[in-house]
């Protein structure tokens, strides 16, 4: 019974959305560490990797990186801490983004 409740609770969270807090970065510097790139600010590095190297925006929570379904909204949050609301597809590790806001 406990196992069924855990599965139900996890399924419900995925269906109704959840919040994920972390830093918007690019998939080339997925751990949000841009020092080795020597491009200046983290924001500049993220922006350049997206524009010039066909990178994708991702969310890094300090331990894990999540792909983001929305690749337009994260642009204004490059290298910033945010809260993403959405549903996680565990198979692809992609958050289907409902909204992104600056973290408090």
TL;DR?
The chain has helices at 2-16, 42-52, and strands at residues 18-26, 57-60, 65-68, 81-89, 94-102.
Description:
The protein is α+β, with helices and mostly antiparallel strands and 104 residues long. It has a single domain, classed as OB fold (Dihydrolipoamide Acetyltransferase, E2P) (Beta Barrel), CATH 2.40.50. 25% of the residues lie in helices and 34% in strands. The chain is built from two helices and five strands; from the N terminus they run αβαββββ. A five-stranded mixed beta barrel has the order 1-2-3-5-4.
Our Rg estimate from Cα atoms comes to: 15 Å
- Uncertain stretches of 5 or more adjacent residues: none
Helical proportion, percent range: 25-40%
CATH class: Mainly Beta
Mean pLDDT: 84
Largest sheet: 5 strands, mixed, barrel
CATH topology: OB fold (Dihydrolipoamide Acetyltransferase, E2P)
Describe the structure using short key phrases.
alpha+beta, 2 helices, OB fold (Dihydrolipoamide Acetyltransferase, E2P), 5-stranded mixed β-barrel
Blueprint of the fold:
Blueprint: H1 2-16, E1 18-26, H2 42-52, E2 57-60, E3 65-68, E4 81-89, E5 94-102
Parallel strand pairs: 3-5
Antiparallel strand pairs: 1-2, 1-4, 2-3, 4-5
